[in-house]
Amino acid sequence: MARITRRTYVKAPLAAFALSAAEAAPAGRTTGQGGIQFSEILNPGEVSRMRLARQIGINHAIVNVNSTLAKVPRTEYVQALTKIKEEFTAAGLKIAGVESHPVPAEKIKLGLPGRDEELENYQAAIAALAQVGVPMVCYNFMAGLGWYRTRVDLKERGGALTSEFNNADAKKLGLTKFGEVTEAQMWSNIEYFQKAVIPVAEKHNILMALHPDDPPLSPLRGLARIVISAKNYRRIMNIVPSPVNGITYCQANFVAMGEDVYSLAQEWLKEKKIFFVHFRDIEGKGERFRETFHDNGPTDMARMLKIYGEGGFNGPMRPDHAPTLEGEENDRPGYAMGGKVFAIGYMRGILDAYKLPHS
User: Fold this and answer.
1) Do residues 108 and 118 touch, judged by C-beta distance below 8 A?
2) Is the pLDDT of residue 190 over 70?
3) Residues 293-326 pLDDT 10s
4) CA 96 to mean position of chain CA atoms
5) What kind of architecture, by CATH, is found in domain 30-358?
6) Rounded Cα–Cα distance for residues 324 and 335 (Å)
7) Beta bridge mates, 277
8) Coil vs helix vs strand at 265
9) Which of left, alpha, beta for 179 (phi over 0: left; psi -120 to 50: alpha)?
10) pLDDT of the residue at 34
11) Three-state SS for 337?
12) Where does the secretion signal sit in this chain (predicted)?
């Protein structure tokens, strides 16, 4: 009888495990072959979150540069952006785009005095982004209030914390300091913005990916919202028709609008108008809804990923708002990393099962 050494005893199951894993792995592995770019929103200086993003297989970053560029003159935009890019490159991450306006833009959105200076800053920022090789801007036109929730402590599966919007509660808070802003004003403001910015973006080949209003209903505490339907998106993209005038497909917002999220994605993918995807789900509709885990809402998320993959989407996609998990602080509702780790694993598994490429 052959003698079994301690080394043989330890190595045998490891070899068997490696063999079974190789047999179980899908043929033609899809990682690193182009396709959907898994991304995470990260700020300069967030070293720990950058490391965690790399550890779970994320290679692309979506970065907020607004606060950085707000502190420097236009002549220093390229220098400031180059420094940010170097930081992310050193962390092993490629910047796939910037989220939120690259420079302050509240006067633009509200049509206030000083908006022309903000627009000049915006045009300079687009040129600077192009110069350093950042290809996309995810922007919004939510004036006065950004994405908005009325609760951030709702219990999801296992006691995880998630957020809710209830318009009945929002109405109780009354108007904001901006008073009432009409839809006519907002249409005028976005037209002014588009005519000033889209031609510059096209010149520099920067994709302008408009994010829906969140929540997508109007008015919100007296502030009109116009990026609230597929019909309005089509109207906006026709203000200045351009191959760079497109969409951030934040799919839960289109669910909240009551749109057919599947056929709409297929339509806009064919038109090459989806530049960026926010992957998340909600339970409910515009007047009242709550965020869910990525696998715990009503949308067929596997079907959505198949639509993106088979539709030829090869841009950045990030798992948006995720519940706050056990042991995490709830100081950044929707943006703690635990739920994002779960979401990325879920998304990778679906794409690998369908043998769809991602990087």
Assistant:
1) yes
2) yes
3) 999 999 999 999 999 999 999 999 999 999 999 9
4) 11
5) Alpha-Beta Barrel (3.20)
6) 8
7) 249, 317
8) helix
9) left
10) 79
11) helix
12) 1-27
| Distance of alpha carbon 283 from alpha carbon 290, whole angstroms | 5
For tokens 């949308």, name the residue: 299
327 pLDDT more than 70: yes
> Hey, what amino acid is at 330?
N
Predicted pLDDT at 192: 99
| Domain residue limits, the chain | 30-358
Q: Is 306 left (phi over 0), alpha (psi -120 to 50) or beta?
A: alpha
User: Tell me, what DSSP letter sits at residue 299?
Assistant: S
Alpha carbons 255 and 266: distance in angstroms, whole number: 15
Task: List CB contacts of 128: < 8 A, sequence separation 6 or more.
Answer: 77, 78, 81
> The tokens of 114 are what?
């000083």
pLDDT tens, 216-255?
Answer: 999 999 999 999 999 999 999 999 999 999 999 999 999 9
Number of residues that make up the chain: 359
Using the predicted structure, report yes or no on whether residue 345 has a pLDDT greater than 80: yes
CA 203 to chain centre: 24
Beta-sheet pairing, 274-279 with 282-285: unpaired
Sequential DSSP letters for 176-226: -TT--B-HHHHHHHHHHHHHHHHHHHHHHT-EEEEPPPSS--S-BTTB---
- Over residues 101-138, the pLDDT tens digits come to 999 999 999 999 999 999 999 999 999 999 999 999 99
- CA angle (69, 110, 71) in 5-degree steps: 15
Residue entry with tokens 């998106």: 233
- Contact in structure between 136 and 315 (CB atoms under 8 Å): yes
Q: For residues 345 and 25, which has the higher predicted lDDT (pLDDT)?
A: 345
Task: Kindly tell me if the per-residue pLDDT of 268 is higher than 70.
Answer: yes
Q: Return phi, psi of residue 139, to 5°.
A: -125, 165
How far is the C-alpha of 2 from the C-alpha of 40, rounded, in Å? 53
User: Which residue, 256, 352, 259, 334, is CA-closest to 293?
Assistant: 334
91 or 25: which leads in pLDDT: 91
> Edge-to-edge strand order for the sheet containing 282-285?
151-155, 161-166, 288-291, 282-285
